[in-house]
Every structure is written in structure tokens, then in C-alpha cells.
Specification:
TIM Barrel; alpha/beta; 14 helices
Length: 364
């Protein structure tokens, strides 16, 4: 599964699900969005395996994405989730900080996990490189791609003009011979980065009156570290777990099935409105003074007035058509459009590296 195939599903509500398998990580990167440590929380594997066991051949997500912390601290769990998901038609993805690359080898259990998933993503940035050399990461990826594995790189920099991004992407393209796609983003002020980085989102000028700005990250639910299922993958929300805003909580993996979670995500009036016009406009229509930043405005939507306004909105004639139209617009930009909107515009087209679309049969 190439990165392009995965990103095509990104605007489609309920087409995939994230699993935060652990908050533990052996690295202490200065920008870590989850503020992970080796001593961080980790919950029973059954919270994740039991949830995946509710996938069926008739009703399952297209993709299950596993992350952490460092997901490959639990290689057996990654392997077992990938196997169970594959048995009903769900493809799998795991992201890693590549802690094991420092030895130049892939431990047996980690290799088993990588072999089972349909896509393996490695993180690479100036902060990771303080603990894991770039050359070691690229050496492992070269070995995997030579063996036929679908892999990608997740890079972050401080800005589109960050010299690090120019240097690292150029070396990766050379070593990996343009066979590995790269999803390039910018460091956000969350986790440990919040201690030293100003929140870039508050620096963006926005009009005083809210305008439609559909949220593109409320489509895929995430099972957080303790099993709470959240509608949004914003790290600040994920960190709250059971204490997340009510309109963003979809249930718990110990008691709710995939089918229930997807139904709640798709049926919620507030989430439908957030995905279609964005939280700032909902809050303003409810008589609130929404913050300039989308995610901050979203926090206000658990109140009664915004909830009622969202219900009124989705019940209006024509809303369903508008909802579908927005989804089609978001999809029309494809994976490159998504990478440009939520990552680095300069490097957005690097998600296409190594992509070879299947030839379509001629119509006769």
C-alpha cells in the first residue's frame, strides 16, 4: 500500500481508524507531540485487539493506523493487529521513530511486525537525528524497500524554508532512489515543543467574522492510549482521553464495536457540521465569539447552544448535498492537496515519489 493510496481515503469519514498502542518511547526528542518517555502509560493489549476483532468482512475500516509513543515497543501487538485486520480486508500501517536503527539491525520481533503491515512509516527530523543518525534510518529503509516493502518517510521542519528539510529530503531521494514517498510537515506547539515554541496557529491572520473552513482531521477516529475513542486526532484532545470535550468522544474500545464508533462519527450533527463548515462558523452562529484558531473554537461546541445550532444546520434542506460537495472538493485535491493543506506546501508533491498507479483496462 503506497502512501498515495492511504491519503486518498483521508477526507472520507469513517474510512480508517488510528490506534494509539502506547505512550511509551525510548527516545526523548525535543519536539515530541505526545511528550513520551520510556516510563509513560501503556494499557492492556486487549483494548486494541478486542476492538479490531469487531471488524468484519462486511463492515471494516479500509485502513488501521498504529502509532504511539513508539508502537514497535509492542511488536507482537502490531503483528497480531495487522494479521487480524488483514483477515477481514483491512490494510494496516505502523509509524516508528526508528529507535532500533541505531544498532544497524532490525530485531526479529520488529521484523515480524514490519512484515505483517501493509505500510511502514519512519519519522525523520533534526530532533530524531539527535538520537538516531539519519544514515542509520535511511540504511534500514533502503533494505526494506529493496525487499519490496511499501515504506514512507514522515519529516517535519520549522518552516517551508528550513534548510534541514532541503538537505534531508535531497539525501533521502538520493539514497532511496526516489522510490519512497515523503509526507513533510511542520513542527507544532504541542507536547515538549510547547515548552519552547510559540504556537504558530495564533500568528495567522483570520477575519473577525468566521468563514466556512471545513475540518479535515475529524474524519478518522482514534483509539487513544487508554481505549477512549476520540473523533479528532489533534494531540491536545487525544491527551485528554476520557476528559475530552463531549462532542469529540465517541466511546471506548472495551465496550463499543467498530460499527458503533463509525456510526456515531458519521451520525453526529456536530461532527458533520465541523467537517462541512468548520467549528468557528458553528460557534459564531450560536452567538459565541469564537477564537481565531479552529481547534480552540471546536472546544466550545460541547455547550448546549452550539449543539442545538449544529442539529438545526444538518436538518436544513440541502445540507446533505453540501456535505457531500465539501467532501468531493476535499477529495479532488487528492493526496497532494491534503499534504499541502496540512503540511508543507513546498514539499507536498513528495507524497507521489515511488507511486506507480495500476494500469486500467481499456474500455471496449
Amino acid at each position: 500500500m503506497h502512501l498515495m493510496e492511504m491519503l486518498r481515503f483521508r477526507p472520507v469519514p469513517g474510512s480508517a481508524v488510528y490506534l494509539g498502542l502506547t505512550r511509551r518511547c525510548p527516545l526523548t526528542c525535543r519536539h515530541c507531540s505526545t511528550n513520551s518517555l520510556i516510563s509513560s502509560e501503556e494499557h492492556d493489549a486487549g483494548l486494541f485487539l478486542g476492538f479490531v476483532d469487531t471488524f468484519t468482512a462486511e463492515d471494516h475500516p479500509e485502513i488501521v493506523l498504529m502509532s504511539g509513543g513508539e508502537a514497535l515497543l509492542r511488536p507482537r501487538l502490531v503483528r497480531d493487529i495487522a494479521r487480524r485486520a488483514s483477515s477481514v480486508g483491512t490494510r494496516s500501517y505502523v509509524a516508528s521513530g526508528m529507535f532500533f536503527a541505531r544498532t544497524g539491525k532490525i530485531p526479529r520481533l520488529i521484523q515480524e511486525a514490519i512484515d505483517e503491515v501493509d505500510h511502514f512509516a519512519a519519522s525523520l527530523d533534526v530532533f530524531h537525528e539527535e538520537e538516531v543518525p539519519r544514515s542509520a534510518v535511511l540504511k534500514i529503509l533502503r533494505r526494506l524497500v529493496d525487499a519490496g516493502k511499501d515504506v514512507s518517510l514522515q519529516l517535519v521542519g520549522m518552516s517551508d524554508d528550513d534548510p534541514y528539510l532541503a538537505e534531508a529530503t535531497a539525501e533521502a531521494r538520493d539514497v532511496l532512489e526516489d522510490r519512497v514517498p515523503m509526507l513533510v510537515g511542520l513542527v507544532g506547539a504541542s507536547g515538549r515543543a510547547a515548552e519552547w515554541m510559540p504556537d504558530r496557529r495564533t500568528l495567522t491572520h483570520l477575519p473577525l467574522s468566521a468563514t466556512a473552513d471545513p475540518c479535515g482531521v475529524a474524519a478518522w477516529p482514534i483509539v487513544t492510549f487508554d481505549g477512549t475513542v476520540i473523533a479528532c486526532c489533534n494531540q491536545a484532545v487525544v491527551d485528554q482521553g476520557r476528559n475530552a470535550p463531549a462532542h469529540l468522544k465517541l466511546g471506548h474500545s472495551a465496550t463499543d464495536t467498530w460499527q458503533t464508533i463509525r456510526s456515531r462519527s458519521r451520525a453526529s450533527a456536530t461532527l458533520r457540521a465541523v467537517r462541512t463548515i468548520g467549528p468557528r462558523m458553528i460557534a459564531q452562529d450560536a452567538g459565541l465569539s469564537p477564537p481565531a484558531e479552529q481547534c480552540a473554537a471546536c472546544y466550545a461546541l460541547s455547550a448546549e447552544d452550539p449543539q442545538r445550532k449544529a442539529v438545526d444546520l444538518v436538518e436544513r434542506p440541502g445540507f446533505a448535498a453540501m456535505e457531500l460537495g465539501v467532501q468531493q472538493i476535499l477529495s479532488s485535491g487528492g493526496p497532494v492537496g491534503y499534504a499541502r493543506r496540512y503540511g508543507s506546501a513546498r514539499y507536498a508533491d513528495m507524497v507521489t515519489l515511488g507511486y506507480r498507479p495500476q494500469e486500467q483496462p481499456c474500455a471496449v
